[in-house]
């Protein structure tokens, strides 16, 4: 979502009481919540490992990563598999994908100045649409650079 005048797609979902989105081109798969393989000594935001299609993906609790309380997954949660650093990582989010948005560059606004380091760390911009402000998650930032989640 970088060229002026281009229209890009994004999927939206809820984390906590806020609406977020990710670029649709980064989404590999969306699946219902299912029990994960525990990953010992993992950071608190890592829920576990998801075996899918012959591969095993780490799954990140987006709520914890954003500084919110840990998610207690139910059958109403989903895992959005996104590509980060040429690997698939699952994002645990609430209630499913809300909608598919078509976003033009004039809808994208800078992240508001808020006294939260988390917002500036993980949210690259906001999307203003129909009196809503949807935070665009920076997938490159959601996974710390020093974490070795792919070694599992």
Structural notes for this entry:
By secondary structure, the protein is mostly beta strands. The protein has one domain (7-139): OB fold (Dihydrolipoamide Acetyltransferase, E2P) (Beta Barrel). Helices cover 9% and strands 49% of the residues. It is built from three helices and ten strands; from the N terminus they run βββββαβββαββα. The protein has helices at residues 62-65, 117-122, 139-142; strands spanning 7-15, 18-23, 27-32, 46-52, 55-61, 78-84, 87-104, 108-109, 123-129, 132-137. Strands 1, 2, 3, 4, 5, 6, 7, 8, 9 and 10 form a ten-stranded mixed sheet that branches. Strand 9 and strand 10 (132-137) form a beta hairpin. The termini are far apart.
Which labels suit this protein?
49% strand; ten-stranded mixed sheet; 10 strands; OB fold (Dihydrolipoamide Acetyltransferase, E2P); 152 residues; 3 helices
Summarize this, please?
It contains 3 helices and 10 strands; from the N terminus they run E-E-E-E-E-H-E-E-E-H-E-E-H. It is mainly beta and 152 residues long.
Beta-strand segment tally = 10
Which structural class matches the secondary elements?
Answer: mainly beta
Unreliable parts: 1-5
Shape: globular
CATH topology: OB fold (Dihydrolipoamide Acetyltransferase, E2P)
């Amino acid at each position: 979502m970088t060229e002026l005048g281009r229209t890009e797609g994004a999927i939206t979902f809820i984390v906590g009481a806020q609406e977020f989105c990710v670029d649709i081109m980064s989404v590999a798969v969306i699946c219902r919540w299912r029990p994960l393989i525990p990953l010992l000594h993992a950071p608190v935001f890592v829920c576990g490992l998801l075996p899918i299609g012959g591969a095993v993906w780490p799954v990140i609790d987006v709520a914890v990563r954003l500084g919110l309380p840990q998610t207690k997954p139910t059958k109403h949660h989903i895992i959005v598999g996104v590509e980060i650093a040429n690997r698939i990582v699952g994002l645990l989010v609430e209630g499913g994908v809300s909608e598919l948005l078509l976003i033009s560059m004039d809808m994208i606004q800078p992240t508001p100045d808020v006294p939260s380091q988390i917002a500036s760390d993980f949210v690259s911009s906001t999307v203003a649409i129909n009196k809503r402000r949807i935070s665009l998650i920076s997938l490159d930032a959601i996974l710390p650079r020093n974490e070795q989640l792919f070694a599992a």
